[in-house]
Amino acid sequence: MIVTSLLAGSLLLASGCGTEPSAVTTTGAAPSQSVPSQSVSHAVAPQVEPTGGTPKPTKPEGHTDNPRKVRWLKATPSKDRRSLRVVWWSGVEPCNVLDRVTVRETSKKVTVTLWEGPSSKVQNVACIEIAIQKVTTVKLKKPLGHRKIVDGAKP
User: Fold this and answer.
1) Are 94 and 127 contacting, i.e. CB atoms less than 8 angstroms apart?
2) What pTM, to 2 d.p., does this model score?
3) Is residue 103 within 8 Å of 150, Cβ to Cβ?
4) What is the sign of the dihedral through the CA atoms of 119, 122, 127 and 132?
């Protein structure tokens, strides 16, 4: 009887010790409300894209709070070299929304900067911390030619 009680207690203790609360991000929470959160000191993009390997097509929405620059993974020119397909890692909406894309063109380079932030249309939401690959297409004023493509979010 004592062995069974000790075994059951140990099993219960061991199963509780290995669990960890899931990470969430909150937006627009009032200071007086208690909202679950957990900070992440280091994030690694998954090897397999959660959306089945295809980046989620995304258009700038222009209604975010405190947009920030976001680094992109690759910018691929179209066949006619008049637009760029830009791919980056992001998070779920409405916590991570593409606000705008700025393009600065010179004779030597094209600088593309992505801007993201939480949507200003919703308040008091919590989003899971999961990486989602997104893609957007930007049109160029002139064909790319031999100009270099630069990430405007890189220091």
Assistant:
1) yes
2) 0.67
3) no
4) negative
Give me the DSSP letters along 52-85.
TTSPEE------BSS-EEE--SEEEE-TTSSEEE
Amino acid at 75: A
Residues 6+ apart with CB under 8 A from 101: 60, 86, 112, 113, 114, 115, 136, 138
3-state SS of 108-122 is CEEEEEEEEECECCC
Neighbouring residues of 89: CB distance < 8 A, sequence distance ≥ 6:
45, 73, 131, 132, 133, 134
DSSP lists the bridge partners of residue 83 as 139
pLDDT of 55 strictly over 80: yes
| φ, ψ for residue 9, nearest 5 deg | -65, -40
Phi and psi (nearest 5°) for 51? -90, 20
Mean pLDDT, rounded, of the chain = 79
